[in-house]
Design brief:
10 strands, 344 residues, homodimer, alpha+beta, DNA-binding
Chain lengths: 344, 344
DNA sequence: CTTTGGCACTCTGGACGGCAGAGTGCTAAT
DNA sequence: ATTAGCACTCTGCCGTCCAGAGTGCCAAAG
């Protein structure tokens, strides 16, 4: 560990107290408050010395001469990595999460929608969920439904209950019989494989097939990227925007606008959530670490959930000044419950 | 028409000029500005008299003694209903709308998503679109896909390319053969009917059917509300939130929060758009006319579009101080183009 | 009777100065 | 190494002041 992070006992304690207090009040914290809150009898003057040290190491800073100190991003990082005493979620919250998530749902999308809502509600921050990648999902059934003379709907159902539908242009008229022949052939050839596998091998698998409508089979081969890739579909759910926009860090209307744009644009957020997916742990991204402009003063707590062979991510976004201990346990527990629900 | 709306030539002109100017500047308008902008040579003093009259009738008001005048809701109403010279959309905008909407799409939802984006972009306000009611949509095909031991996916495809999918709980194991029998029976019995008709008559239609899995048929009868009603699914698309939150009327953070909540909650908005659907005209809802708290200082311009036998609505939401003439023609033209695209 | 110039009046918003409060850094004493 | 004391600095708030904008009314002019 770099030298700047080698803190002695008092420095650790002071930094922890400072951040805890700042998280609660959103006001710069002075030496007096720390000295009185910090039970080991030590005077404000002593604390001031410690504060000066911490500032030298870049862990805290002063908004201006003679205000209290405020944690820097580096400070938060150290706090999250080494100072945080992980906190068990209250029974109340655990039950609430479980109860709200355990409802009848009509589609997997609905569960993730609901999950975002639950995250937002329990955390009073922004809840975010993304659908899993289709890449590794196992195809259960493929179906074709004629819609108009020139358009046909492709329905792709994969294990665990996802369905994707899309319209494709077809050249020729196809009668009912050869249509169902084609559907049967397709199902025989590709069911039970992952979408990724299908994409890579469909040409070979359909090669030399004699029955079924050749036009349609050709269509599948030609448009395999469009049909079997999910980059186009909307995969993110956010909930609780109103929770966080009233917070201090959005007082500047320009920042607010930038953030709302970010939410609407979706792409960067999806990228953030999908990108920071450690295999099984929780990932905390603080402020500019995300390299996303609109998240300058915000942090994200992210964890993956499992569904069948594949996985997606959920998370909470809020001001860097967030209750990390609590939010980490919220995300952790929610991801666990979600994985359970989806694997039934 | 009520007496308060019987305006003479000058009063009409003054009100029109005042509103035009206020829309542009967002500042209270004084007599001097009106007098100079208003070409017929007449002095500020005269205008002041007219303004006093208009104020007596409740069409305009002063934020405080000795500020200029600002239109009231009633004033806007009169302006929209009687003073507005309808404006043909610029060729530029028409082409832009047509071009942006005429793209390949993989689902009807995508078109409406894109439409909301186009509305937002051309108007610099909030674009809103809602999916049509399924009630009158004609069923093209119904399909069943087993997902897990106890869950089955119902796929409902209706004319014009919509698909709805939902998961239902099934009691018994169903083998492949009786499943496809059941699907065939269902399709024979209900294809070509509207979802509403099906909901009302499915019991009779399936009565006395001998082949097919009786458990499944029973399920359809018992759960017809869930399966055939669309109130649960997300039917609204909004785009361009960042366009309007930086405007003057959202300076008060509490108002902003209320508005964002409104957008997230969706329900009131859907209700507003579906509710104000005149058969073929444009509907303009000004401020509190909507009876929705979060829209206190906002107006909505709404029009329906057609798709097959049914219809949905699109609209623009922005400050009451909006360019009604332009936005009306934007919504009008966009709805027309959208109907064309969807009927292909 | 309508229009207009003139004028006194009112209200806002920004600039300015003064001041209490909070917090610091440094020094000297313990 | 810790602490008390102290001088110093910066913010945020409050009251005052003033220019600017706009009005309403009155009396004169058309």
């Amino acid at each position: 560990m770099a030298k700047q992070f080698e803190l002695n006992e008092r420095e650790r304690a002071v930094l922890a107290v400072l951040i805890d207090h700042y998280i609660r009040t959103a006001e710069p914290v002075g030496s007096r408050v720390i000295a009185t809150k910090f039970n080991l009898g030590v005077s404000p003057a002593t604390v001031r010395n410690t504060l000066a040290d911490l500032e030298d190491r870049g862990l805290i800073e002063q908004p201006h001469t003679s205000a209290g100190r405020v944690p820097t991003e580096v400070g938060y990082r150290l706090y999250v990595d080494h100072l945080l005493k992980s906190e068990r979620l209250s029974k109340n919250d655990r039950e609430k999460i479980k109860r709200l998530l355990t409802v009848d749902y009509g589609a997997v999308e609905d569960v993730l929608d609901q999950t975002a809502r639950v995250l937002a509600q329990v955390s009073s921050q922004l809840g975010v969920t993304v659908l899993p990648k289709f890449e590794n999902a196992i195809l259960t059934k493929i179906d074709l439904v004629p819609v108009t003379d020139t358009k046909m709907m492709v329905i792709i159902a994969v294990k665990s209950g996802f369905v994707r539908t899309l319209l494709v242009e077809v050249e020729a008229q196809v009668d009912q019989n050869s249509l169902s022949d084609t559907v049967q052939i397709l199902n025989e050839k590709v069911c039970g494989l992952s979408l990724g596998e299908i994409r890579n091998t469909i040409r070979e698998r359909l090669h030399g097939v004699s029955n079924g409508e050749p036009q349609l089979l050709k269509l599948f081969i030609d448009q395999k990227e469009t049909i079997l890739d999910d980059t186009s579909s909307p995969t993110i759910h956010t909930e609780g925007t109103s929770n966080i926009i009233s917070q201090k860090e959005f007082q500047d209307p320009e920042k607010l606008r930038e953030f709302i744009s970010l939410l609407e644009e979706r792409k960067s957020l999806v990228h953030l959530l999908k990108g920071s997916s450690l295999p099984d742990g929780i990932s905390v991204t603080i402020g500019t670490e995300s390299n996303i402009g609109g998240l300058r003063d915000l942090s994200a707590v992210i964890k993956t959930y499992k569904i069948g062979q594949t996985h997606g991510s959920i998370g909470i976004i809020g001001p860097t000044r967030m209750e990390y201990a609590k939010l980490i346990s919220v995300v952790d527990y929610t991801a666990k419950v979600l994985s359970e629900i989806l694997s039934r």
